Backbone:
């Protein structure tokens, strides 16, 4: 396939694989087909519609499987640990760092062992080994299910959000009482969606508080209310939490767009460079990403063992820095990834011009492929901050009953980012002319790839400014955290004034990290 369609196919696949956690996909059968080889890279016969349909169907099936795994695996794994703020404050490790570390090990294995098998053994085994690994993982999940902590579902979160909106709209002419204690609360009704604690009332987006206004006859002790007419404060705050998260979440989209085509373009660059590690061994172009993965893995360990303890001394935050600060650092670092990529491409073409190789797309330019390594390493460092911080932010700030949906938002951001990347590359290819096209189909030496990287760098700078503004005005959620029986006994020893007939709650000010200010509140019908 030509450069731009091939690169767009990769990002479209990544986008679809990231979108299916939310919308799913269609299943279909497929049958064999393979386009003829094109060793000269000139006047190539492109794959037929039938052959491409086989490819796209296979990728779609993979995307369908990803839809079940990606939004659930991180939240299910987190459910196996005590993720309460009060508990995390005393821990010396971060679950999300180690989750991403395990994913990095898997990526490293795919980029080395699997790629080697695909290139030197065959594609059948290259696809077969991951298929066998997935089968083993299914067996492990099934036979280990009796050992897992499994939380009961609380119903569709999207239905609850819609109920709040509808209820608020029906009461749009009502005045919200100044005293938030007059708004409707029902801990028994919210029990299945507030296992870790109840969301406290906030003064943002007060229009939605209308949904919790109690009108005559709407709330009785004998019957549950019609949730399309009356919502609890907790459910209203669920909607507010999601709305507050969306601007921060959306900032991650353009970060994905910035790096969406970098891998495929780098492979094209690497094919024109000296890839020899010895006289007999050449590093596969697709394996260059291992340097980014190794940097990310090393960075996660250093972040956990060195950066967090050092930052903690200055910030007094058990996590070292907040999720928002972590993401901001990642956004900043990633700008240098595309800047370095631009400079490397300028260097590569200068060497090609010096040796009169610009018009030979198959020629090996006498420049080491390791010139491409720094951009992967910088991106790996950015991932340590941005990707992990983004995932942790979505898990931490989302309502507990919507954490799988929040994890799906992480992948939806990747999906949208890849689709925007496809659109951007297509437009650049279409409107940068034929003679000096930035992204030519066959001969990268005559392209202007460095201009594309500079364009992406500029977009990232604008995105960083947008993110800083969103983060500056962001309000963390406020949670009244439930205390277990063991913790309750400890609190009784320290707080004799707590009524032993009532279940105490911790009220956490999560805007100060992991709740530096801890208060006790009683389990009354109205929030104390």
Residues:
């Amino acid at each position: 396939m030509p450069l731009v369609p091939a690169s767009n196919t990769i990002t479209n696949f990544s986008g679809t694989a990231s979108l299916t956690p939310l919308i799913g996909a269609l299943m279909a059968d497929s049958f064999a087909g393979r386009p003829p080889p094109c060793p000269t890279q000139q006047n190539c016969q492109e794959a037929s519609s039938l052959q491409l349909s086989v490819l796209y169907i296979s990728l779609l099936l993979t995307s369908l499987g990803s839809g079940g795994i990606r939004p659930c695996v991180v939240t299910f794994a987190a459910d196996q640990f005590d993720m309460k703020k009060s508990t995390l404050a005393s821990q010396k490790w971060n679950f999300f760092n180690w989750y991403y570390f395990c994913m990095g090990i898997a990526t490293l294995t795919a980029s080395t062992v699997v790629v080697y098998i695909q290139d030197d053994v065959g594609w059948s085994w290259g696809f077969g080994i991951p298929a066998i690994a997935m089968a083993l993982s299914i067996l492990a999940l099934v036979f280990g299910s009796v050992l897992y902590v499994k939380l009961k579902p609380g119903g569709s979160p999207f239905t609850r959000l819609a109920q709040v909106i509808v209820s608020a709209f029906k009461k749009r002419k009502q005045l919200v009482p100044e005293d938030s204690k007059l708004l409707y609360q029902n801990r028994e009704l919210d029990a299945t969606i507030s296992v870790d604690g109840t969301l406290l009332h906030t003064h943002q987006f007060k229009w939605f508080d209308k949904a919790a206004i109690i009108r005559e006859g709407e709330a009785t002790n004998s019957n549950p209310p019609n949730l399309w007419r009356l919502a609890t404060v907790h459910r209203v705050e669920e909607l507010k939490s999601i709305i507050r998260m969306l601007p921060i979440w959306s900032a991650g989209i353009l970060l994905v767009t910035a790096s969406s085509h970098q891998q495929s373009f780098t492979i094209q660059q690497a094919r024109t460079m000296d890839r020899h590690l010895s006289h007999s061994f050449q590093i596969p172009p697709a394996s260059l990403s291992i340097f980014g993965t190794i940097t990310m893995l090393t960075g996660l360990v250093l972040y956990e063992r060195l950066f967090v303890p050092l930052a903690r001394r200055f910030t007094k935050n058990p996590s070292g820095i907040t999720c928002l600060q972590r993401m901001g650092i990642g956004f900043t670092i990633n700008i240098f990834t595309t800047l370095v990529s631009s400079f490397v491409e300028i260097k590569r073409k200068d060497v090609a011009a010096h040796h009169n190789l610009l018009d030979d797309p198959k020629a090996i330019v006498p420049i080491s492929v390791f010139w491409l390594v720094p951009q992967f390493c910088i991106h790996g460092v950015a991932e340590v901050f941005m990707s992990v911080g983004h995932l942790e932010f979505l898990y931490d700030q989302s309502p507990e009953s919507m954490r799988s949906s929040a994890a799906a938002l992480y992948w939806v951001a990747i999906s949208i980012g890849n689709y925007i990347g496809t659109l951007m590359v297509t437009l650049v290819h279409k409107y940068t002319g034929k003679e000096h096209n930035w992204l030519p189909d066959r001969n990268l030496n005559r392209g202007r790839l460095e201009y594309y990287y500079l364009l992406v760098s500029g977009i990232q700078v604008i995105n960083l400014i947008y993110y800083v503004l969103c983060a500056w005005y962001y309000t963390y959620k406020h949670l009244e955290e439930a205390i277990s029986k063991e913790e309750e006994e400890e609190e009784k020893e320290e707080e004799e004034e707590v009524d032993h007939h009532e279940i105490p709650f911790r009220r956490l000010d999560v805007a100060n990290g992991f709740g530096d200010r801890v208060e006790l509140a009683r389990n009354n019908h109205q929030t104390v």
Observations:
- Residues 412 and 490 are 42 Å apart (CA to CA).
- The chain has a mean pLDDT of 79.
- The longest helix spans residues 323-354.
